Amino acid sequence: MNGAAEPSLSFKVLTLNTHKGFTSFNRKFVLHELREAVRATSADVVFLQEVLGSHQKHSRRHKAWPPRPQYEFLADSIWTEFAYGRNAVYPHGDHGNAILSKFPIVRYENCDVSVGRREKRGLLHAVLKVPGPDVEVHVVCVHFAVFESHRQKQLRMLCRLVRDRVPDSAPLVVAGDFNDWRVLANGVLARGCGLKEAFVETHGRSARTFHARLPVFRLDRIYYRNVRIADPAVHSVQPWSHLSDHAPLSAQVCV
User: Fold this and answer.
1) The pTM is what?
2) Which CATH number characterizes residue 181's domain?
């Protein structure tokens, strides 16, 4: 923990690519089931990727479509604070990353890290005021590009954000869908901004999260700095295996 004092606060984080509230191949709208599953994890901070802000066609087609943005619907009365970073905008709506928090969000910003025109991507950076220690916890929700060359540039952008906007001693958690099937991000982030990966540090390798029904690729990650991580877990059994194409990850964070 880089010489920090004994931890005085522990909270749970969860990261999930919501696949816009649909099962694989968009066969079924499952946002209501997804909300119940997320609630059941008792996570304090939730990192969401591919969450819809709006979609006019879907709202007319599906009777159970909520009248508010998906991130607000998922937050409901459990996570009283939320932040949304709109990345992709199209004629019928928009989607991006979101952070749900049981702690006050002091401030947040969405940093555009799109490379080219095909994939609009962002880094949603928020600062949380947690109870107990007089310290602010920085969190970053990530969803990187499919193309390797784009991801490498985005990893460098993430390192630059951490170096420029996160104090060296501040607790930091970075989580999301890195699309890093070649598992190259761990070394880049360790060298570039001192981040450790929860499953590598605990189990020796990053977790398999894609495809959720039979995870093979290690696409989703939880990175950290200046905190301790305990009990990292992959949620790849029912109900999760049919709620998205990615299996969620969770971990306990000790500040």
Assistant:
1) 0.95
2) 3.60.10.10
